[in-house]
Design goal:
2 copies of one chain form a homodimer.
Chain A lengths: L8 H14 L3 H10 L2 H9 L3 H10 L5 H7 L2 H8 L4 H7 L5 H9 L3 H10 L2 H11 L6 H4 L6 E2 L5 H11 L8 E5 L5 E6 H6 L6 H4 L7 E2 L4 H11 L3 E5 L5 E6 H19 L12 H28 L1 H6 L1 H6 L2 H22 L8 H31 L2 H31 L4 H28 L1
Main location (chains A, B): membrane
Subcellular location (chains A, B): Cell membrane; Membrane
Protein name (chains A, B): Magnesium transporter MgtE
């Protein structure tokens, strides 16, 4: 009878384990950990404060280390690995995918990673060294080398017998790769074709084309888009000579998709997307300070603008009271556009062919919302301060700033991307600086001129 | 010989097609569309301005409509479907997955969707009606009903012969489901096991447990977490009587992951994540206005605070010039924390067991960064305005506000989640309101008191 998976299990385990740890019931925790799947232990580690994390790691069966490391997020993985002995680490790599071993080794000091490599057996070492020779965020860095290859001139029956002798297939195997005598990829035999074809048919007669292979240099984001669009489960990787060099599976691609999406979200808030939820205070403070430093410049730019109008501010304090409203609305409206454009750029929806349409559309939205909010806020100000002039000034500034926000919201991310600066990281801050400066200048400038 | 996939193809196609459309070369475009895969046409449609989109849709072979609709984002899909005749739509559904047909029908007026249903053949209609009976964001709404079931008491050989007669397997089939005489799921036979097992072995002797089945009521986000952690390619769905009712595949789960991630990113900027890049101006303006309206309240709250200190502002314009700096830094620092907490909540890393540690850690980061930026900005203000008192006031306000930002950044999203309000949507705005109000109050309050 099928049991349901209780999704709250993980939370419960976290609660139980942390209580047991607090009470020093280590034997109990060790027993609980033995009953858990590696991926659930990984989740538990990520959700644990740093101190309990180290204790938990000590209580975990070292045989599971490899599979757990496979599943951990980068910051947490780095922290645990940095405390492991090279021999233990070398042993752990036996349970890990090639790409993940390469990832771990990249994050270690050179001498430690050389030591770990020297402890691995030859065939594993060669695989890992191959992976290390490609950039981490390319197909070469993402692929595994556990491919099953067959020849095209054999019968389906022969393939089936060969697989029965092999006895086990690598995870997420949905196709066998057909190569020629030069190890070049010439086709794929989907497993589903294999089992629905009569035994006496030749592989080359039923195999699919090899035109869906991934170049070993392709970037991981492009690979993710391809998998998403084609609904692939796995895909072969070839080098510039069409030699089959590995295979990428959907589980690694899902990680890339998740990481890319997290990257956008976290960058937009000025956060490093690797930041562990329980990172050490000083490390986090230092990382986040960079962004606060950028914001100091933006805030000082805005203050310099108001400073130019000190005389006006002195004359009428109501202007100082109201001057934050226009920049605030411009920042919110502009960031809406920035978010839309960043998503569009990431999905490949925005290019030279349509950016003018997009600009026109966002400017029009800025105008529509500008008119609406100019009227509403102008009205509020007239009612509040009983000053028609002030209402008119804030309305004009609001309209101008929302129009500017729409235009800047499209152009800033596109320009940043052209300049090879990540628009998710710098877009929001640049936009806010523009809308702050323009919003304040127009509002205070008009006020100075009119009053 | 394997050809490489050119990732820029899509962009090139977009450029070419839009040029051809502009020049009215429709025959050329129609020919190009015929050479493209449905998923690439979907991408092209999403990247096209609305006017060209309708023309492209007319030029597309109606035979591909179903598969293209399968791949389109929701806003674009809705727009195209709303213009299709029920008969054309009924025909298109033949090429679509059950869950996607159900999605499309949900977005149509009741009478149209009834009309479409009546045009479908009986077995398709029954499947779609089943899917319609479950919530859209549950396993029932996400699953397909194209499962292959076998009995446990037959030999592997019999299964292989059965599959050869069937001739074709549903997409992403990586396991056959073993059921008993009551249609209850009792096990799974992974395809890889099937082909590596000797022909005379009984299915029940090699099948895997059925304990990894998904309850039909499970939410799509929980399903996505499970797939991600277990590295599944597909999973069976069962109802409360353990009856097998369908199957969820990784490609649909990838869409959920992408949508959830986009949702967080877009919501944080106050955007509807369904908003099509080329949505109509008035529709977008209306949707975005809701958020701008919320921000008006936040901005007015801040203005009311400054209004209470009008006398102080009147006395010293430098205070008005400097008063935006403290709220701005608090907003940025607080939103860093909010982003971290939203991600942690989404990944299930934050719960009752560890929220106190998190609060302590973020408060500590607020304190560390608060001290640092208090000193730096205090120094800048002393140098700029030559006023030690003003430097001291802004330092004290900065320190307080960054500490508040850290604490509010943790508590606000957690509280919102408890209140069943999406923290990604409301967290940033609520945080900014708090840091604006506290930042202004402390800075202006101290200034009033001291000067």
């Amino acid at each position: 009878m099928a049991e349901q998976i209780e999704f709250d299990q993980a939370h419960q385990a976290l609660q139980e384990v942390s209580e047991a740890l607090e009470n020093g019931r280590f034997v109990h925790v060790r027993r609980q950990l033995q009953d858990m799947e590696p991926e659930d232990i990984a989740h538990l580690l990520e959700a644990s404060p740093r101190k309990s994390r180290d204790v938990l790691w000590q209580l975990t069966d070292p045989e599971d280390y490899g599979e757990i490391l496979d599943e951990l997020n980068e910051d947490v993985k780095d922290a645990l690995v940095s405390k492991m002995e090279p021999e233990v680490l070398a042993e752990a790599t036996e349970g890990m995918d090639t790409d993940d071993v390469a990832y771990v080794l990249r994050s270690l000091p050179d001498d430690v990673s050389r030591e770990v490599l020297s402890q691995m057996d030859i065939s594993d070492r060669l695989r890992v060294e191959t992976a290390l020779s490609y950039p981490e965020d390319s197909a070469g860095g993402l692929m595994n080398t556990d491919v099953i290859t067959i020849r095209g001139d054999v019968d389906v029956d022969v393939v089936l017998r060969y697989l029965r002798i092999k006895g086990e297939l690598p995870e997420a195997t949905d196709a066998l790769y057909v190569i020629n005598e030069d190890s070049q990829l010439i086709g794929q035999l989907p497993i589903t074709t294999l089992i629905t074809t009569q035994p006496d048919v030749k592989v080359s007669d039923v195999m699919a084309d090899a035109d869906e292979a991934i170049e070993v240099t392709m970037s991981d984001s492009d690979i993710a888009s391809l998998f998403e669009r084609r609904n692939w489960v796995s895909a072969p990787v070839i080098n510039e000579h069409q030699h089959l060099v590995g295979r990428i599976t959907i589980d690694d691609v899902v990680d890339v998709i998740r990481e890319d999406a997290e990257h956008s979200m976290m960058s937009m808030a000025g956060m490093d997307d690797d930041e562990d939820t329980f990172a050490p205070v000083f490390k986090s403070a230092r990382k986040r300070s960079i962004w606060l430093g950028a914001n100091v410049l933006a805030a000082l730019a805005a203050a310099s603008v108001s400073n130019m109008f000190e005389a006006t501010l002195e004359q009428m304090a109501a202007i100082a009271v109201l001057m934050t409203i226009v920049p605030s609305m411009g920042g919110v409206a502009g960031n809406q556009t920035v978010a839309l454009v960043i998503r569009g750029l990431a999905l490949g929806h925005i290019g030279d062919a349509n950016k003018r349409e997009l600009l026109a559309k966002e400017a029009a939205i800025g105008l529509v919302n500008g008119i609406m909010w100019a009227l509403i806020i102008g009205g509020i100000v007239v009612a509040w301060k009983g000053n028609w002039m002030l209402g008119g000034i804030i309305s004009a500034a609001m309209l101008t700033n929302l129009l500017v926000a729409g235009i800047a919201g499209v152009t800033i991310p596109i320009l940043l991307k052209k300049m090879k600066i990540d628009p998710a990281l710098a877009g929001g801050m640049a936009l806010t600086t523009v809308t702050d400066v323009i919003g304040l200048s127009v509002f205070l400038g008009l006020a100075t001129f009119m009053i």
